[in-house]
User: What shape does this take?
Amino acid sequence: MTTVASVNVTMPSDRDIAITRLFDAPRSLVYDCYTKPDLLRRWMTPDGWDFARCDNDLRIGGAFHWQWRNPSGQTLGMRGVYQEIARPERIARTETFDSDPAATETLGTLVLSEQDGKTNVTMTVRFPSTKARDGALQCGMTKGIAASQSKLDTLLAEIGRVQDNAA
Assistant: This one.
């Protein structure tokens, strides 16, 4: 399994960032990689960081809290509450970073669609203002997501090889 297309970043409104990528893997597997802590830990990490905490109560009203740690002990965390779950096609959740408790909450929506065994993933983040959206872009949000999704490619390929060998 390999990436069929690179990350595509758009701004569909003055408050939204949409990131789209096509994966050469079935939708149910990609969904699992976005929702199961044992799989999240294997790909959703900034370079040079490890998952220190991966709490994920995947139900409407359930909370998640993810925290990463770098070798010098610095931490970065994100938390929120699941608003909508439709397995394996859609997840919506609030999101805020631990580093700025006064930061305004965003709404992240993940939509997965499958065609011919490949999965198109669109992640849309709605910010409270254009200024907040532009600040996230300037901080390298999309670069970090692209790097993590590259790790997801590797994980999907690894799982695909294991499944092929088991068959």
